[in-house]
Amino acid sequence: MAGGGFVSQGGGTHHEGNVNTFVIITCLVAAMGGLIFGYDLGISGGVTSMEHFLKQFFPSVYEQEAKASGGNQYCKFDSQLLTLFTSSLYLAALVASFFASIVTRAFGRKMSMLTGGLVFLVGSILNGAAVNVEMLIIGRLLLGVGVGFANQSVPVYLSEMAPPKIRGALNIGFQMAITIGILVANLVNYGTAQIKDGWGWRLSLALAAVPAIMMTVGAFFLPDTPNSILERGDMEKARQMLKKIRGLENVDGEFQELVDACEAAKKVQHPWKNIMQPRYRPQLVICCVIPFFQQLTGINVITFYAPVLYKTLGFGDSASLMSAVISGAVNVLATIVSIVTVDKFGRKFLFLEGGAQMFISQVAVGSMIWKTFGVNGEGSMSGGVEADILLALICVYVAGFAWSWGPLGWLVPSEICPLEIRSAGQAINVSVNMLWTFVIGQLFLSMLCHMKFGLFYFFAGFVALMTIFIYWFLPETKNVPIEEMNRVWKAHWFWGKFIPEDAVIGPHVSMEPFGKGV
Prior knowledge:
This protein is mainly α. Helix content is 73%, strand content 0%.
C-alpha cells in the first residue's frame, strides 16, 4: 500500500511538505530526552561493578564477590538490594508515566519534557551526593520520574512533528539518543573507575545532570506540536505552526485532517476507557505486546549489567568496562543503520531480520558459556580468543537488537494510535516497558545464578516467539500518514474485523477487505 494511494482530493501532495531545518533541529532537541534514559541505563551497571561503591553501600555483595573468585561464577552478584538500586528507577518511571500522560494531554508535550528534565536534575544531584543507601534510592526514584515523563512525551512529540516520509527516521532519533547516552555512560565509567581515591562513582552518578540540563533548556525553547496546540483549542496558532514545520504556505488539506482527528479526540473524555473498546483492539494489543517482548529479548541484561556480566564471565575490571564500551559503540552504529533503512525497507523487514540475528547469536553465547563454565559455574575464560569470540557474538546480538526491536519498540506504538487514544497508548507502552524492565532488572542476577547459561536459551526462545508474532500480526506502517493508519488495520487479515467501517477516513473506504495491504 503506497504512501499516496488513498489520500483524498489533492493528489496526495498535501502530506509531503519539505523537510526543513526547523523540524530537524526541533526533533534533535526533543530527542535529548532519550539521553537521560540512556545515560542512566548505562551508568548503573558500571557503578554497581565498582568496588568502592559496593564497599560503601552494599558491603555484603562486596564480600560475596571477593569469595567467588574461585568458586561458582554465576552467583557472585546475587543481591536483591543491589538490584533494587538499579530497578527502583523503572518502578518510579512506571507510576510517573501515568501522570505524565495527563500532563501531556492537558498542558502539551513540551510541559512534560520540562518537568521530566527538572526532576531528573534533582535526582542526579542527590545521587552524586549520596551518603547512604536511602539517599541513593530516593535519588533513583526521582530519576525514574524524570525518565517516565521524558519517555511518555518525546516519542509522541517526534511522531507529531515529523513529516510522514521521514517519521521513522526522526523518531528513531529518540532511540539514537538512548544509545548515545549508554555509550557515553560506558566511557564515563571506564574513566571514573581509574580514579584512585575511589570517589569515581560519585562523578559517574552526578554527571547525569548534564543531559538533564540539556533536555530542560532544550524543552524550554521548543515549540509545541500542531496537534498539541489544537488539543488545547488554538486553531490559528496550530495552522501557523503546521505551515512552519511543513515549510509550505498551503497546508489546508493536512490541517483539516488534524482538525477532524482532534474533534474526534475531543469527544473522548476518557482515553483509558476508550482504548479498551473493540475498535482499538489492535492498538491496545500492540502497545502491550511490543514493549513486553522488547524487554524479553534480554537486551537490558546486556546494557544494565554488561560490566557485571563480563566480570562474571571472568574479564578483569578494566576489561569488563572496556567491553561494555565496545558493545555500546556497536549499539550506536547499528541504530544509524535503522535510521537509514526504516522508511525504505519498512518496519516489518527490520523486525524479522533483527529477530533472526538475535536468535542465532543468543544460542551461540549460551552454548559458549555452557562450554566454559558448565553447570556448576566453575572455570574461567582463557582470555584471548575465547573472550574475543564471546564479545563478538554479543556485539552481533546487540546490533540485531539496535536495528530492530530497539528503535521500533518505541516507534511502532507511537505511530499506530489515533490522536484520541495516543497519550493513553503511549503511557501503556512506557509502563509495560518499565514494568518488565523492572522485573527483569530485579530478577536477572538471581536468574543468572539459578538458570546459568540456560538464561540465554530462555531469551532466545522468546525472540523466536516474538518474531513469529510480528510476522502474522503486525501490518507494515511505513509512509502511512498517522491520521490514515486505520486503513492499514482494516485491510489486515486478523485485525480487519475489529475496525468499524466509519473509522476509516477518506473516500476509498470499500477496499477489498483482504487486499494486498497485509
